[in-house]
Amino acid sequence: MTRYVMVADLRRCVGCQTCTAACRHINGTPPGVQWRRVLDMEIGVYPDVHRAFVPVGCQHCSDPPCLDVCPSTATRKRDDGIVTIDYDICIGCSYCAVACPYDARYKVSRAEFAYGGEGMANEQAVFDPRRINVATKCTFCVDRIDAGTAKGLTPGVDPEATPACVNSCIAQALHFGDIDDPDSNVSKLVRDNEHFRMHEELGTNPGFYYLWDAAGEEEK
Amino acid sequence: MRGITPYRQNYWDWRAAGNFMYGGTGSGLIVSSLLALAYGEPTLLHVLIGLVFMGTGLGLVWLEIGRPFRALNVFLHPQRSWMTREGFVATVAFGVGAAAMWFGHALLIAGTAALALLFLYCQAHILQASKGIPAWREPTLAPLIIATGLTEGVAASLALVSAAFTMTMVALVVLLTLRAWSWRRYRLASETGMPTAAARVLAAFSMPFLLLGHVLPLALLIADMALGNRYPALTYFAAVLAFGSGWTFKFMVVRYAAQTQGFAIIHRPARGPRGSGGEGVKPGWGS
Amino acid sequence: MKSPTATPRQVEKKPTYCYQCVAGPDLLTVSVSDGVAVACEPNFSAAEVHPGGGKCCVKAYGLVQKTYNPHRITTPMKRTNPKKGRDQDPGFVAISWDEALDTIADKLREIRQKGLLDESGYARVAATFGGGGTPTYYMGTFPAFLSAWGAVDLGYGSGQGVKCYHSEHLYGEFWHRAFTVGSDTPRCDYVISCGANLEASAGVVGVWRHSNARIRGMKRVQVEPHLSVTGGCSASWVPIRPKTDAAFLYAIMHVLCFEHPLDALDVPFLRDRTAAPYLVAPNGYYMRDPSSRKPLVWDMKTKRALPFDSPDIEPALQGLFRVSGVEVGADNETWQHTEIEVRSAFEAMRDHLAGATPAWASEICDVPEDTIRTVANEYLAHARVGETIDIEGVTLPYRPVAVVLGKSVTNGWGGYECCWARTMLACLVGALEVPGGTLGTTVRLNRPATSRFASVLPDADGFMTQPLNPTDRERWKIKPKSRNAYNTLVPLVGDSPWSPALGPTYLSWLFQDKPPENWPRPTLPDLWFIYRTNPAISNWDAPAIADRMAKFPFIVALTYTRDESNHMADILLPEATDLESTQLIRMGGTKFIEQFWNYEGFGLRQKMVEPQGEAKDFTDIATELARRTGLLENYNRAINKGAACTKLSGDNYDFSLDEKTPHTPEEIWDAVCRAASAELTDGKETDGLDWFQKNGYKFKPFPLLNWYLYPRMVEQGLRFEMPFQERLYRVGQELANRLHEHGIEWWDTQLKEYQALPAWKDFPGIWQEAAIAEGGSIDDYPFWLLTARSMQYSWGANAGIQLMREVAGNIGGHAGVIINTETARKLGIEDGDLVEIRSSLRATKGHAVLRQGIRPDTLLTLGQFDHWAMPVAKDFQMPSLNTVAPMTMALMDATGSGSDLVRVGLRKLDGGRS
Predict the structure, then answer these.
(1) Of C398, C424, C445, which residue constitutes the final position of a domain?
(2) Minimal CB count within 10 Å: which of A191, B157, C10, C452?
(3) Interchain contact, A14 vs C67, CB within 8 Å
(4) Where are the domains of chain B?
(5) Does the distance separating the beta carbons of C65 and A34 come in below 8 Å?
(6) Within 10 Å of residue B219's Cβ, how many Cβ atoms?
(7) Which of A112, A108, A113 is nearest to A132 (CA)?
(8) Is residue C71 part of a domain?
(9) What's the longest Cα–Cα distance across chain C?
(10) Region of C767 on the Ramachandran plot (φ > 0 left; ψ -120 to 50 alpha; else beta)
């Protein structure tokens, strides 16, 4: 089996938002719709304060609450673990949005452009009316993965088959790959490092691993 | 701009809240028809008004969804979605309810009541399945939603019953007590299981809700009963309070205690040498 | 509007570069769909050659919106309202290119007839470009036009030059060919970073290298008043009181020198590669050999003083010695000494630092004594003194420790002290210019700029030569070349093409209204070009700068959108922007801030979409200006000689342009591409523009050994000019003599910076005094207001780009002024409240952003905002330090820079929560 997951190395992430911008570009999302974004979290009280930059977005859960609640079956989970939305079926009820504990879903009710009006030429070129009034979210750039794997490329290794955010990351904080393959890049990263998943206690079985330290020798 | 700390969701607005308000009362009213049925009183108005209420609630949802002309797609996921199930149950309830009104058969009315109860159950689970909103997914909310739907329905039914009036009053006393107890469980759960902002909303709501929504109507009902039902106005006023507080509660839960989960990290990362990481943070939760 | 699925679109990926900030260039590709640029991506094919994996940073993703921004000016325009000022509507109306260019050309010809210099000796034409020199990478052949023109005053600052790493630029290049200084991050294990906000300002490569280093286990200690993004990515944060970094660093030096034995330090390095053993005579100059005039050292073998370069000697670092010799001071003043007691420069430095204990610094810096001592000991422990490493077959010292300094630490008063301490800390453990240590990147004051090492030549005292502006009586220039007087007042800045922009650039503004005594009458330039710069926002006392700009008689603004500076312009020229025009530039080698490459060569920025409206390639504009002013031949000649990237002819190739005819940008850049290609391959390959358009870049290997200056110093037997600054001290004395001879005393405070061993002064006190110079009490201004860079905006001139605003919003502080949570609570300020920040000058307003990661006595505004004309940005409601920071002589150091620092008061305003 294959399960594609994202690995975010919090030791590396600097919160630059390059992934956010790259996602906006490649996926042509409208202003404010950030399928990938990076949180700036402060930890502690002055003077013992720390910051962590935490990439978030759809966690492509193995037990996705959004899928359970979706009344139209627009939200589905593929065999490779990617949770998708069929814009042609979605009724835009937003049930998935309130079911998602990762605040990953967006719904816009009208065409919105960076500077208003009819949109700039670049916005017109990528505008997709199917996305109006339906739920949208990170797709793990599923089209790239499908096109890439069709060419025999490996997601997470070959840029052509890899999500845009991972490709863009200037800190090598974001990694993508098949966690079911013990030899994959992400399996090695997860094996060699201390990690956690967010809100795991909610039973979502998220596909997003956060690395926070190297594993001790005994843990490898 | 979305932040880090839990924020009040804006996906479901007053229209969604209205579904729980109308739907809860409507289904409760239909369920309450069983009391009238037991006393041989007419029940058609219970069913009719109940169905109209349920329909109004669903109509409000229809107004809220982004693609109203695809509304029928709501029926595509009965295996797992409580919204689909709500839709199915409502559809069957409308059918059976229509038959009940047409034929007036007690079994059909009882069947409609059973479906209405199921509808209410679906509504409660719609909220509970909303894992992104801690105040909704809290397990103690589901019985509270059911209790308040029944309370509102029974309260509303007081206007429609005569022979069953006293028994309905007793039922209302029982339901109000049950609702108060359910609320208390929910409130206590909120202190640990919800974002601070949501818990604050619930805390602020609690005392007025208990006093105006429970203590006062109970006192009025008991007073009326103690005085031999000579002052039905007391009971009607109690019913209005029971009904109104139920609606206020649901509006509050859907609109104001509806903080999102927010984000959390269990560990802050090491920045350099191994071991330089530490405890994480869960903004908007706890103190 | 059509669905993307309606018709299949033709999508091509075109390679280009992004050099919006000084931390570039980076490589990227842009997807062009049916002629419309739609998305940026890294240049994956460059992953191996680019030190940041072929990636580009968030700013590059703003380029698509930049291209299609509806607020762009897309036709030439002229001003119709002769009155200028913030409150005046310029009344810009569209005109033809012919009219615009003819108007400018007429003006230029008129100026040429009058003479290039005005009655005060200043160039009649001035030009200002934005920070970091990056506009050069977008202005095509305009440098060739300026070269063809002749004298141009480049000394009007827009903040650049004085708000940069200014002391680092000047002293760094002087000491180790380090216009900027970085750590050898791939090999470094321990970094003390005083406010160097690398994760925000070191670009893709900085982020890339440091994230790798963190995983490797490198420890970085971030010393700064607020917890920046970089602090957040560091192992620990030391919240230091603003402007006290020098005391912190001095205390670390003290610990190394006084709490550890000498042999814990790198004695061979100090003895052989620095001036530490040079003997210091009583008047503050070296004791010199009477005949050769070479500095003396005490030879431990022969027990006598010998010239530093005597063979087979073992110079002493410590001790007092009885020595005879001469001492040569300013203006060749000479003292003969016989058998007097002298000490080594190293001993002088130790004496200088004797009182700089951690306890002493703790009081000044508000940092626990233990913290300072721990950092010092960790630094030493990580230095691996004595170890070596093999680099390309050469064995070099391996010292994986570094000290890096940030903006406001390396500029303004205290900058010299910090830079000196940093460089000396490297010397103490032998970590200067060796693998793992503190490295320079590039040169801008020395020539040639294309090689960091070509100018490494010995001077008489065993150091590298340095082209200081002369201060002797014969050659010193009382008449400045530029209105900022860089060549008159700042010997260290030299006179390279970069020097005018690195002089005291705010003097041009400061003197405009109120000239000092005995100084040439300030005049305004007859014509001023401005490009990718916005002094009306980016300078201190920004509103006053705007007022002064309003007095300029004729401003030509190369314009993207309307902004606060082109609000005063007479002609707006819409230039084809990043994705709409063509240029070839040099890349690779070593370059600021952390761009250390293993390759060098050339990269192309290509026209991939048609310019919006009538926007014109800057190269076309330059060519037309040259033609219409009768300078075409000179202009083409300048291009042939290398003014556009590189010389067009070499030993075995010649792609020179015909000098008599105008050429299209395509013709020019094709010739440049071919010459560049030939230069890289010794004439074997001559790939033209079409090849570069397809491939994007062409490189050849750059040796790793070239990252380090140390081997070059060893080869030539040279010493780093540390710790004792005899040369600077002498130059300072001579400059004082010259100025005083001409009755100029207003530079006396600055002259005090010329110390052989820089002493700690109450640097914060300078800003405190400035706050109450006009009266009032310091209690009215209880806070320090600082700035920090924002990666999303730094140098980008992109405040009007919606995407940048949007994504920057995810990072704390982009919505207003950062205030310590507890401080805010005491003042009754809640997150999002509208607050007023008031200095002695004026007030700026913004919303409160409450954070724990900032000192209680400090406020912080990110970037430079407070726009009032630029579309989009003018609605930000962002406070700006520049609005409230004064621009005065008292705040200017000897190199001509100030610092982003001002004392302010803070109060909540009614209403207006965000």
Answers:
(1) C445
(2) C10
(3) no
(4) 14-281
(5) no
(6) 13
(7) A108
(8) no
(9) 95
(10) alpha
Q: Name the H helices within C681-725.
A: 689-695, 710-715
Domain borders along chain A are 4-213
pLDDT tens-digit series, residues B257-285: 999 999 999 999 999 999 999 999 999 99
- Give CA C224 to chain center in angstroms: 19
Q: State the Cα–Cα distance between residues C814 and C360, nearest whole angstrom.
A: 36
What is the spatial distance between Cα C430 and Cα C446, in angstroms, rounded to a whole number? 25
- Domain count within chain C: 2
Task: For residues C310 and C296, give the distance between their C-alpha atoms in angstroms, rounded to a whole number.
Answer: 9
Phi/psi at B158 (5° precision): -55, -30
pTM: 0.96
Q: Give the tokens for residue C353.
A: 């630092």
- Residue of chain A whose alpha carbon sits nearest to that of B82: A69
Burial of C6 (0-12, 13-18, 19+ CB in 10 A): exposed
Distance separating alpha carbons of residues A145 and A143, to the nearest angstrom: 5
CATH of A4-213 given 3.40.120.10, 3.30.70.20, 3.40.50.300, 3.40.50.1450: 3.30.70.20
Ranges of beta strands (E only) in C827-900 are: 834-838, 843-851, 858-862
Fold category of B14-281 in CATH: Formate dehydrogenase/DMSO reductase fold (1.20.1630)
Does B275 lie at the interface with C, CB-CB under 8 angstroms? no
- As a whole-number percent, the residues of chain A with pLDDT over 70 amount to 98
- Distance to chain B for A161, nearest Cα, Å: 29
**What is residue C3's predicted lDDT score, i.e. its pLDDT?**
43
Give the pLDDT confidence of C262-320 residue by residue, as tens digits.
999 999 999 999 999 999 999 999 999 999 999 999 999 999 999 999 999 999 999 99
> Does some domain include residue C214?
yes
The predicted-structure confidence for C572-596, as pLDDT tens digits, reads as follows 999 999 999 999 999 999 998 899 9
- Give the up-direction half-sphere exposure of residue C837: CA atoms within 13 A in the CB hemisphere: 32
Q: List phi, psi (to 5°) of C224.
A: -165, 155
Phi, psi of C414 (to 5 degrees): 95, -15
A74/A67 Cα distance (integer angstroms): 8
Cβ atoms of C118 and C92 closer than 8 Å: no
Q: What is the DSSP string of C445-466?
A: SSS-TT-SSTT--B-TTSSB--
- pLDDT tens track for B212-225: 999 999 999 999 99
Using CB atoms, which residue from C208, C239, C807 is nearest to A21?
C807
DSSP state of A3: -
Q: Give the closest-approach CA distance of B285 to chain C in angstroms.
A: 17
Nearest to B272 among C217, C232, C806 (CB): C217
Give CA torsion, residues A58, A61, A67, A69, to 10 deg: -90
Determine the Cα–Cα distance for residues C493 and C315; give it in Å rounded to an integer.
32
Domain membership flag for residue C284: yes
**Cβ proximity of C565 and C869 under 8 Å:** no
CATH number, domain containing residue C247: 3.40.228.10
Q: Which residues contact B101 (CB under 8 A, 6 or more apart)?
A: B44, B47, B48
Domain range for C397: 166-445
Let me know: does C799 contact C817? Beta carbons within 8 Å.
Answer: no
Q: How far is B198 from B206, CA to CA, in rounded Å? A: 12
DSSP annotation of A132 reads B
What digits encode the pLDDT tens for the residues C753-793?
Answer: 999 999 999 999 999 999 999 888 999 999 999 999 999 99
d(CA C906, CA C364): 24
CA-nearest of A10, A55, A18, A11 to A37 is A55
**Interface predicted TM-score (ipTM):** 0.97
> Across the interface, do B132 and A97 touch by the CB < 8 Å criterion?
yes
List pLDDT tens digits, range A149-189.
999 999 999 999 999 999 999 999 999 999 999 999 999 99
- Phi/psi of residue C201, each to 5°? -125, 0
Helix, coil or strand: residue B169: helix
